[in-house]
Amino acid sequence: MFDYSARPDLLKGRTIMVTGAGRGIGAAAAKAYAAHGATVLLLGKTEANLSQVYDEIEAAGHPKPAVIPFNLETALPHQYDELAAMIESEFGHIDGLLHNASIIGPRTPLEQLSGDNFMRVMQINVNAMFMLTSTLLPLLKLSQDASVIFTSSSVGRKGRAYWGAYGVSKFATEGLMQTLADELEGVAPVRANSINPGATRTSMRAQAYPGENPENNPLPEQIMPVYLYLMGPDSTGINGQAFNAQ
């Protein structure tokens, strides 16, 4: 596990958006960020899941989060602009963005992968991530110290058979992170890095490995040290790096 212990007020006064915040790693990260003082913007497709995370954060006495229902698969460019305008109006700027939302798609040989399935995975995992990043970048640049975290995978760092569009999308994720990091270096107070969560007890992992005993994998809450490190000021100056949560 990544070795880091976050102080209680690490993210005090910060506003952080988490995509796919309704369950799994996204929900765990949102609650961890809130527990360390951040106002968390919970973005996701299923409002009921986001509301549950909202209730848990509020019940714990942490800063009041915000629920933002948003469908990354179907959102049009003007909707990203409207989202950014709403955030600017309500919060002025944001200090962090965790790109967590993604889908796995069919695990099949590329030869047997339909174009529709490939494009759906790329739409959610890559295109939407680009749109959100580019639209929110002006608000991130208004922060004194902002962080963008991209969620990668071991299959996005070395190609592996039968990981289809998901593997390709995670290579694109690493490329987007590296390109953005290089453009921001020495120019803006924004850094970009990626995290490979590794095997974690989530529904996506169960979908990918149905025969695996989930008890052998850590809970999302257990891999949070690197998520806290990269989102907080202790990682200032760290840019364009690929991290492993485990």
TrEMBL record:
It holds the Pfam family adh_short. It comes from the Bacteria. The keyword Oxidoreductase applies. GO terms for molecular function: oxidoreductase activity. Keywords: Oxidoreductase. The keyword Hydrolase does not apply. Belongs to the short-chain dehydrogenases/reductases (SDR) family. NCBIfam families: PRK08945.1. This is Oxoacyl-(Acyl carrier protein) reductase. The lineage of its organism: Bacteria, Pseudomonadati, Pseudomonadota, Gammaproteobacteria, Pseudomonadales.
